[in-house]
Amino acid sequence: MIPAFDTAPDLRDGVRLAARNRRLALGLTQAELAARSGVPLGTLKRFERLGEVSFSSLLTIAEALDASNGFHHLFPQPEARSLEELERQAKPPKRARRRG
Fold first, then answer.
1. What angle (nearest 5°) sits at the alpha carbon of residue 52, between those of residues 49 and 53?
2. Whole-number Cα distances in Å, 64 to 17, 36, 59, 90
């Protein structure tokens, strides 16, 4: 299987189209989704047309479309290849000390 090499614009277009298609499948107008999500109608229209939206607004739109579960898997942990790596992943990262 050949891995996919989507660029950022490819991913952006995929997300905006998926959101638009989900909105339509749920039978919502842009105005209804804007009201349901609290995202301004102009912002929602720009997102569906160009894919431009803040991450916060994207999360709000996804939540209003009952589609926010995918964000939990956005940055998965790499698979541990040894017991040492598994233990390191289980520990919370240490904060760096501020130099004064």
1. 120
2. 16, 6, 9, 33
Region of 31 (left: φ > 0; alpha: ψ -120 to 50; beta: rest) is alpha
**For residues 52 and 19, what is the distance between their CA atoms, to the nearest angstrom?**
13
pTM, to two decimals: 0.74
Q: Please name the residues in contact with 80: beta carbons below 8 A apart, sequence gap of 6 or more.
A: 86, 89
Residue 72's pLDDT band, with cuts at 50, 70 and 90, is: confident
Structure tokens at 77: 């942990």
Q: For the chain, list the domains and their CATH numbers.
A: 8-74 (1.10.260.40)
Q: What pLDDT is stored for residue 83 in this prediction?
A: 83
Q: Measured between alpha carbons, how far is 47 from 53 in angstroms, rounded to an integer?
A: 5
The 10s digit of each residue's pLDDT in 26-69 is 999 999 999 999 999 999 999 999 999 999 999 999 999 999 99
